[in-house]
Design brief:
By secondary structure, the chain is mostly helical. It has one domain. It has 18 helices and four strands. Strands 1-2 form a two-stranded antiparallel sheet. A two-stranded antiparallel sheet has the order 3-4. β3 and β4 form a beta hairpin. α14 packs across α18. The protein is globular and about 60 Å long.
Length: 427
């Protein structure tokens, strides 16, 4: 039967990754209750920067809100936050100040986990057995474990983004406008989701202009009110070590300078130079005549790609943010890019594979450094491929808006169709 060859009924293929997350989450919780030592050993192997206490990030946000209500400047290290500081948008503090009661750490963390499980079910159903297996492995991979374990606000960004991205292809313009409103709300909370508004390029010129005017007005009003808090939050965006638990274009320059015992001042300049070269390569590899997948897959593909490309080339990112690869995988499989999908899976399981690899290579002089460098190079290759997709999408949409390309219609919005990619990873 066709559905059996595809991996089972459509309902099963849609909900299986979510079920895997829920089961894995329950197993981690049970193991923590039964044997803390084994739980911590497993966490150290799977998570690049494991946290002993669950939902530490959620607790920090809740603590910051309480301190802020007391009049404490939470954007600088303060005693109220145990010398910690609040590095998110001030809008989040206002959002939590509604008289709905402040959920404690466990309630907040478990609620975010439940939202992630539901959000994964919004992704397009797998179309083959291989894709289903791959996406189930991705759903229980290291960044998802790290995100759910810390209760970081990125889990909320992920869940709400999934709702918005699922609604973008809906024919009713008011629903799409609601999606862009959600993306704007998320940008007011943690800045980087603003890149999701690139999906407005899929609208026709009249609607795009209207949305742009409204969005610009909201942005100006927000900055007029919260300029000081936004600048303070941007100035203290946290960073991590280049050797474990993070990803970013800066990791290789910074790591090599650290190994060479050279001050890391030049690292940012080297990163910008490498980024410029990478974007030139991506421009030339961008698919100019290739078929992107159907509406829902395309929306998630571009949304996830935009987030990861922006974050990778702009700053350090803690590893949990790689959970946005889950948005990308359905579109990558739909385009037949199986090698790229395999590379993404390797990156999502990087901490565990490096943990195992270091156990084997550690006796070899420099073996752990070579493994780190190999993974960092794989990150560069994957991100250049994703940047090429994003550039191809944007280039095609701009051409359509200027009347230089073909178009098809979704209700009152004209949407450009790009033909299929002629390149594949490592081919």
């Amino acid at each position: 039967m066709a559905w059996l060859a595809a991996g089972g009924p459509v309902t099963f293929r849609r909900f299986a990754p979510s079920l895997c997350v829920a089961v894995a989450y329950g197993c981690y919780a049970l193991l923590r209750h039964v044997d803390m030592a084994v739980y911590l050993a497993l966490l150290r192997a799977v998570d690049g920067l494991p946290a002993v206490q669950p939902f530490g990030d959620a607790n920090a946000v809740l603590l910051a809100e309480r301190c802020w209500r007391l009049g404490v400047n939470v954007f600088v290290p303060n005693a109220c936050m145990d010398t910690g500081e609040f590095n998110y948008s001030p809008f989040l503090l206002h959002l939590m100040a509604f008289p709905l009661g402040g959920p404690e750490r466990w309630i907040a963390g478990l609620s975010e986990a439940a939202l992630v499980v539901l959000a994964i079910a919004l992704l397009p159903a797998a179309t083959s057995r291989m894709e289903l297996i791959a996406r189930c492995f991705a759903a229980v991979s290291s960044p998802v474990v790290a995100a759910l374990g810390t209760g970081n606000i990125d889990t909320l960004i992920f869940a709400v983004s999934a709702v918005g991205l699922a609604a973008v292809p809906v024919r009713r313009g008011v629903v799409r406008f609601g999606s862009y409103g959600l993306f704007t709300l998320l940008a007011a909370i943690k800045f980087y989701p603003v890149i999701l508004l690139c999906l407005m390029l899929r609208e026709n010129r009249r609607i795009l202009a209207a949305y742009a005017v409204v969005g610009l007005g909201v942005c100006i009003a927000f900055l007029a009110v919260e300029h000081a808090g936004v600048m303070a939050a941007l100035s203290i965006i946290p960073s991590g070590p280049p050797f474990a638990g993070t990803f970013g274009a800066i990791n290789i320059p910074e790591g090599i300078l650290v190994l060479a015992r050279i001050p890391d001042g030049p690292a940012i300049w080297i990163t910008w130079l490498l980024t410029a070269v990478a974007l030139v390569v991506a421009w030339h590899r961008a698919p100019a005549a290739a078929a992107f997948p159907e509406e829902t897959c395309l929306t998630f593909l571009i949304g996830g790609t935009a987030i990861l490309v922006l974050c990778y080339f702009s700053t350090h990112n803690f590893f949990y943010r790689a959970m946005f690869f889950l948005f990308i995988l359905p579109g990558v499989f739909a385009m037949g890019r199986t090698r790229l999908a395999a590379a993404i899976l390797l990156l999502m399981w990087e901490p565990l594979l490096r943990f195992l690899g270091n156990g084997i290579l550690l006796p070899v002089a420099g073996g752990n450094i070579l493994l780190w460098l190999g993974y960092e190079l794989l990150w560069w290759v994957v991100m250049v491929e994703l940047a090429a997709m994003l550039i191809g999408f944007a280039r095609g949409e701009v051409a359509r808006l200027l009347g230089w390309g073909p178009a098809r219609r979704i209700d009152d919005a004209t949407v450009f169709t790009l033909p299929s990619a002629s390149h594949d990873l490592a081919e």
